Amino acid sequence: MAARIDDTYAEAFKSIYVELLITARDRTWLEHAVNAATGHGSSTIMCDCEAGLDRYVGPGGDESFQTPDGRPGAVVQMHLPRFRKDRVEALEKAALARITQNVLTAPTAACFNLVDSDTYYHMGRKVAYFGNGFQTREERYGRKVWVVPILGGEFIIDRRLGYTDGLMGGNLWLFGDSVDSALAGAERGVQAVHDVPGVIMPFPGGVAGSGSTAGSKYKFAIASTFTKFCPTLQDHPDVEAGLPDGVKSVMEIIMNGKDLQAIIDATQAAIKAAADTPGLNMISAGNYGGKLGKSLVYLHPDKQPAA
């Protein structure tokens, strides 16, 4: 029996983001670079940005997307909420740290910009200072790049890294009769989202096992566990129970993306993939009644206005 699809919506909010292409000699070293560059990027509650893999491209990946140097590549996004007053400076700082510490250092890696916009960072120049005066401005693969001499050979990076508006906060909640069923449904959903271009899932393996709500009884905390939906608190006298009968675990998929249509497509792909998971009771989503973001992603596609 298929899981019930709740008649609700996820509430996405505006972000600014950078999108970069990492390439490497082979898939092994490409994955190392991607994993390092997107690490500790689950939530802007305490991370410098939300970062994640969109998809692998070029040889061994989506071969309709050709990389500039013809090598295996990966598309990575990094997002910050648009409501942050320091968003432009903070995103540059996060991207600079992740590129210099995790892409530059990855053997055989190179880094290219994928956002062609009027707003951009002089990222290549800042990274190239690592060359200690021996860095050079060149044209490679028909692109304007900096070339940095390194012990492994050379590091190539585009001169500019563009940034533009995106969306954060698309999500699905998967309610299971056990941890295994909830996680199995989430894993199926994650796999489906990976096939949709333009979307990242920043949490570990694409899944958050500790969905939160804004605020806390503690003044120093800005978010806390969503007690209403914690299975072990359903009988607690101080908690308003919110889970359907028989639900023992809730897993969440959180999606950021280039635009609303990409998140809509990813949401529908995940629902379709997860719905028949044995033991999955319901698929729902979290929102704040429209108070956080104005981009609503309805779980029932017939309710969705045109993006």
Describe the structure.
The chain is built from 5 helices and 17 strands. The protein has 2 domains: 4-11 and 168-303, Alpha-Beta Plaits (2-Layer Sandwich), CATH 3.30.70; 15-164, Alpha-Beta Plaits (2-Layer Sandwich). The chain has helices spanning 27-37, 87-103, 123-128, 179-194, 260-274; strands at residues 4-5, 9-23, 50-57, 73-81, 110-113, 120-121, 136-140, 143-150, 153-158, 161-176, 199-200, 207-208, 212-214, 223-225, 249-257, 280-284, 295-298. The two termini are 31 Å apart. A hairpin with an 8-residue loop joins strand 13 (212-214) and strand 14 (223-225). The longest helix has 17 residues, at 87-103. The strands form 3 sheets. Strands 1, 2, 3, 4, 5, 6, 10, 11, 12, 15, 16 and 17 form a 12-stranded mixed beta sheet that branches. Strands 7-8-9 form a 3-stranded antiparallel beta sheet. It has a two-stranded antiparallel sheet with strand order 13-14. It is elongated, with a radius of gyration of 21 Å. With 307 residues, it is α+β, with helices and mostly antiparallel strands.
